Amino acid sequence: MNDDFSNQPPPSRSAKKRAAKAIEELAATLMTLAGADYRRLPLNGVIAEELEQARAIKSHGARKRQLKRLAGLLRADDENRQQIESFMADLERGHQQNTAGFHRLEELREGLCDPARCAETLAEIEKTLTGIDTAKIHRLAKSVQNSADKRAFREIFRMLRDAGPAQG
């Protein structure tokens, strides 16, 4: 009886509680997931039905009970839970990439609106964002630099966003 499992101590009560709490947080996240993301969830069977019910419940106490039930089902079904956790990790990565892209566009806009960095930022935009009207961007940037034109400030961002992804 020289199994690898016999040498490992069982998980502590604290470790079990942390794991249960993590699954309960996953269930709570699933209940509050946006509609478009919810429809893409890889769900089937009882868990899908219970999650659908949980999302429809408005009463605080009943919602809390349903959350506990859903967490229990997720603890019992390792395969489904792992698929859901993988989906949620991919979703989070996508949100982080969108946020990073948004911040990059803001950096480009700030560079355009700063008179000291405008020329180098405009050259960078010409290289990375093909098909953008650089003359119009330059004209809008000058408007922001000279008169703090908020409309032009917003228009620069829109043009950068619509031109395509900005590599950072």
Account of the protein in words:
There is one protein chain. The chain is mostly helical and about 170 residues long. The protein is about 80% helix and about 0% strand. It folds into 2 domains: about 10-75, no CATH class; about 95-165. The protein contains 9 helices and no strands. Helix 6 crosses helix 7. The longest helix has about 35 residues, at about 80-115. The model has no long low-confidence stretch (mean pLDDT about 85).
Features:
mainly alpha; elongated; 2 domains
Briefly say what this structure is:
The chain has 168 residues and is mainly α.
Topology, number of strands: 0
Structural class: mainly alpha
Apparent shape: elongated
Largest β-sheet summary? none
List the helices and strands and how they pair.
Blueprint: H1 4-7, H2 13-31, H3 35-39, H4 45-56, H5 60-76, H6 78-113, H7 118-128, H8 134-147, H9 150-163
Helix pairs in contact: 2-5, 4-5, 6-7, 6-9, 7-8, 8-9
